[in-house]
């Protein structure tokens, strides 16, 4: 089996991380699109959410990650104890997550569920594949917010549907590959068909944003409910 080589080099990200919540135990941030969650092995991929935050908050750890192109809410623990407690909430699926996305085309249904197991695709790193045999269970719900057109300059432009996505599991690339499975990939998604339709190459980013997050503070026991408006 040949070794997987990651040749991706992230272009510079000049957008800042926005701090939405801070106390002695944890942070909630709004990550910009185009910023890695964790630094890569290649020295040219040093800049990341963790690389920036650890300078201000020594010892902090990311509780979960967002893809490079995805923007939005992330939880950061300020100690190992808090990190373990928050990771347990994520693994137990007690954290409620909501995303906004622009999907290519107009969805026929106003809401629905995508239930499709996901596995790694060793032949096409870093892609994932739908695989009912070897894949891990993955389930996402969606709700249509509005149907419209993207880049409406000359003519109608590309038909798109703005949706709220609610993942019930947390697999790698889950929402991106589930939307492709639905027949309506996320606009701007290079791995799962979001650049293939005429006009889709005008998308300046992956149109996926982590817009809502609800979890229990591991020390106070209070419910934290945070939101971040979609930038697209």
UniProtKB/TrEMBL annotation:
GO molecular function terms noted in the UniProt entry: 23S rRNA pseudouridine(746) synthase activity; tRNA pseudouridine(32) synthase activity
PROSITE patterns in the record: PSI_RLU (PS01129)
Presence of the UniProt keyword Isomerase in the record: yes
Residue span(s) of domain Pseudouridine synthase RsuA/RluA-like: 25-181
Keywords on record: Isomerase
InterPro entries linked to this entry: PsdUridine_synth_cat_dom_sf, PsdUridine_synth_RluA-like_CS, PsdUridine_synth_RsuA/RluA, RluA_PseudoU_synthase
SUPFAM superfamilies for this protein: Pseudouridine synthase (SSF55120)
Record's keyword annotation contains Isomerase: yes
EC number: 5.4.99.28, 5.4.99.29
A Pfam family annotated for this UniProt entry: PseudoU_synth_2
Designated name of the protein: tRNA pseudouridine32 synthase/23S rRNA pseudouridine746 synthase
């Amino acid at each position: 089996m040949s070794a997987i080589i990651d040749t991706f080099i992230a272009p510079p990200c000049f957008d800042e991380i926005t701090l939405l919540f801070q106390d002695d135990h944890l942070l909630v941030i709004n990550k910009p699109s185009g910023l890695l969650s964790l630094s890569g092995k290649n020295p040219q991929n040093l800049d990341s959410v963790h690389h920036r935050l650890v300078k201000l908050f020594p010892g902090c750890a990311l509780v979960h990650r967002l893809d490079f192109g995805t923007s939005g809410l992330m939880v950061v623990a300020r100690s190992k104890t808090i990190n373990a407690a928050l990771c347990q909430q994520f693994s137990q699926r007690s954290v409620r997550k909501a995303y906004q996305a622009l999907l290519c085309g107009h969805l026929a249904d106003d809401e629905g569920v995508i239930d499709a197991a996901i596995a790694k695709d060793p032949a096409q790193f870093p892609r994932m594949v739908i695989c009912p045999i070897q894949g891990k269970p993955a389930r996402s719900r969606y709700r249509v917010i509005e149907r419209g057109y993207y880049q409406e300059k000359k003519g109608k432009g590309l038909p798109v549907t703005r949706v709220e996505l609610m993942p019930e599991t947390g697999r790698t690339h889950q929402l991106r590959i589930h939307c492709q499975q639905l027949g309506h990939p996320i606009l701007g998604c290079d791995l799962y068909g979001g650049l293939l339709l005429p006009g889709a190459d005008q998308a300046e980013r992956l149109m996926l944003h982590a817009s809502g997050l609800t979890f229990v503070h591991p020390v106070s026991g209070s419910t934290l409910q945070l939101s971040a408006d979609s930038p697209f």
